[in-house]
Design brief:
3 copies of one chain form a homotrimer. By secondary structure, chain A is of the alpha+beta class. Helix content of chain A is 24%, strand content 38%. Chain A contains 3 helices and 8 strands, in the order ββαββααββββ. In chain A, the strands form 2 sheets. In chain A, strands 1-8-3-5-6 form a 5-stranded antiparallel β-sheet, with helices on one face. A 3-stranded antiparallel β-sheet of chain A has the order 2-7-4, with helices on both faces. In chain A, strand 5 and strand 6 form a beta hairpin. The longest helix of chain A has 14 residues. The radius of gyration of chain A is 16 Å and the shape is elongated. Chains in contact: A-B, A-C, B-C. Chains B and C meet through strand 4, helix 2 and strand 5 of B and strand 1, strand 3, helix 3 and strand 8 of C.
Chain lengths: 139, 139, 139
């Protein structure tokens, strides 16, 4: 049993889902581990990780419409507003989605379902530099 | 340290929570690992995994009522409707719940709390065949 | 590769977020594992685990205001009310947040982002004793 650890930086350009499946799949292939467990971790509190449908881009836009209606920007409920009206909604979105994802690796590949992609969900309206930690354990 | 990897198929009969605790507990016991980490992964985007109260079935029905009100079928907000009016709500429910669960194993058993069960949450109105990936690492 | 397993008990005093970052960080340091994966698991169905902003306490209060509005106590939707009007909302909050968190360990430390803290989110109005399971694997 061995482990590999890494971090990869992604640039976002504002509130949306960013498909990082290719980058993750290609990193896993390079580690030469046939069976194991991959964990992705996002060390931020206003962006999150999500497994979602990777086929119809309308799904991602519908998802964003839903979160935007559920947690409206400028909601008078929120008092933490010094960093902008999109900041507190970003923290709530992060609480409702995932900060960490663990996915089995089999035959040297990350075991996603046919219609699954791995996404960074950027919750701030401005673009940000987002770091993802990779951890893979197996043999 | 060793690892075991498997996949088990479950049949659902429409939108509801399905208790898979027994199947998970019995699989773990068979692996002969005393201390370790179990990870369950669902390779689908319209069903999810959930740890919930396993005692009063009304909890599960209340949970379903809540999600049904929060993400109404036929909501004009959603444009991804070609696969049916229950499809986009299913993706949103998946985003709000878990795709992956990691649970410590101790004394050869999955360490659930007294009132915890492991459930597949089927979000589509029709029944589906749902695959769960199992990964256990330990000694 | 080795693993360490433990459980630590925390007392809460009612519905709020409780910062356990220091306790987690200090436990990890003691294990003498340089690189690995830490998993925290909460064996309860009316409290959850959350990674959130650790700087402005108003963020935590805003988060609580949001969940309180989203899942109102005494909602006539809920039929599971025998354990109190805060019980079913607690189960829904648990479903919407995390029961388990996996965080990479690097250089002997849990790899949290600069503004990230680890919190127990107590969802019941009364104080409770909450157990957290710790599992660390690495070398």
């Amino acid at each position: 049993m061995i482990q590999q650890s890494d971090e990869i930086v992604f640039k976002t350009s504002g509130r949306a889902l960013y498909d990082i499946t290719k980058e993750v799949a290609s990193w896993v292939k390079k580690q030469n581990i046939q069976t194991g467990l991959l964990t992705l971790y996002i060390p931020h509190t206003s962006a999150s990780l999500l497994i979602q449908e990777n086929y119809d881009p309308e799904v991602l836009r519908d998802l964003e419409r839903f979160f935007n209606r559920l947690i409206p920007q400028g909601d008078p409920l929120f008092r933490h507003t010094t960093e902008g009206s999109d900041d507190m909604p970003a923290h709530v979105r992060s609480a409702l989605t995932a900060t960490t994802l663990s996915i089995p690796v089999r035959r040297g590949q990350v075991s996603l379902g046919t219609w699954q992609g791995i996404f960074i969900y950027e919750h701030r309206t401005a673009g940000h530099v987002r770091k993802i930690l990779f951890h893979l354990m197996g043999e």
